[in-house]
Design a protein that fits this description.
- The chain is of the alpha/beta class.
- It has a single domain, classed as Rossmann fold, CATH 3.40.50.
- Helices cover 49% and strands 8% of the residues.
- The protein has helices at residues 17-27, 34-37, 48-60, 65-82, 101-107, 120-124, 148-171, 180-185, 187-197, 205-208, 226-242, and strands at residues 7-11, 91-93, 112-117, 175-179.
- Strands 2-1-3-4 form a four-stranded parallel sheet, sandwiched between helices.
- The chain is globular, with a radius of gyration of 18 Å.
- The protein starts with 6 loop residues before the first strand and ends with a helix.
Length: 246
């Protein structure tokens, strides 16, 4: 039987990728050898060391040709350990895979990518996003003195736009973009869509959709002062519109 490419799930941090991984796992996607890959309350692979080592130089464009080859070998070896058999649907999630999409597309030419998007206003106005190590890679020189929340909406916009452009142009039907809010509002419908995309039977979509829980933080941006909301919306307006957040 031929070897299948992975189903990779990514998005901005705290955008809901965990429940997307839980859905495909319940649907029958092999998400790695449990004792090696499962962390408490998460479906993440234990590739934190790899990500910490390679994501930053990749997004900042500082990798030498030799380092690029080393990065490819490191990911290929680790993922082969977690996924020795690839004859049935398999895959993994980590938010930062979105930033590595061109690299992963080269490493796995038949991969599928689930692009999870959350409202950029929620993403930018939350304490858990302070100190993101990759924001500066997406800023122009004239944007470096902006407030943290303005920088964050720019990072949100450009990183999601890059993933969307790559997915639509290079992956085509192997690319699926789902807004976190849409999954929360229509869990059965979106769960079915996700399962079908992952190559799973949609028969249990209604049952599996029960894992979806609307977080209390959804729409939290409305609780911030009007001037803060205004600055974030002004900086991110084009991307918010493009991704359906009017």
């Amino acid at each position: 039987m031929s070897e299948l490419g992975p189903i990779v799930i990514g998005g901005n941090g705290h955008s809901g990728t965990r429940v997307f991984a839980e859905i495909v796992t319940l649907g029958g996607v092999f998400t790695g050898i449990r004792r090696l890959t499962k962390r408490k309350d998460s479906e993440d692979l234990r590739i934190i060391g790899l990500l910490n080592r390679w994501v930053r130089p990749f997004v900042y464009g500082t990798l030498s040709p030799e380092e690029s080859s080393e990065m490819k070998r490191a990911f290929a070896r680790r993922l082969r350990l977690y996924f020795p058999s690839r004859s049935r649907p398999w895959g993994f999630k980590n938010p930062r895979t979105m930033l590595l999409l061109p690299f992963l597309g080269e490493l796995f030419p038949t991969m599928k990518f689930v692009h999870v998007v959350r409202d950029g206003r929620d993403v930018s106005l939350g304490n858990e996003f302070v100190g993101n190590a990759y924001v500066d890679a997406y800023l122009r020189d004239d944007e470096r003195a902006l407030s943290a929340e303005e920088k964050m909406i720019i990072f949100w916009g450009r990183s999601n736009e890059a993933a969307m452009t790559y997915g639509e142009s290079r992956l085509g039907s192997r690319y699926l973009r789902v807004r976190w809010e849409d999954l929360c509002r229509n869990p059965a419908v979106k769960t079915r869509q996700l399962l079908e995309f992952a190559g799973c039977s949609p028969e249990r979509a209604g049952e599996i959709s029960g894992v979806v829980r609307k977080p209390s933080s959804l729409g939290r941006w409305r609780e911030f002062p009007a001037d803060t909301q205004g600055r974030v919306e002004s900086r991110g307006r084009a991307w918010l519109s493009k991704l359906g957040y009017e």
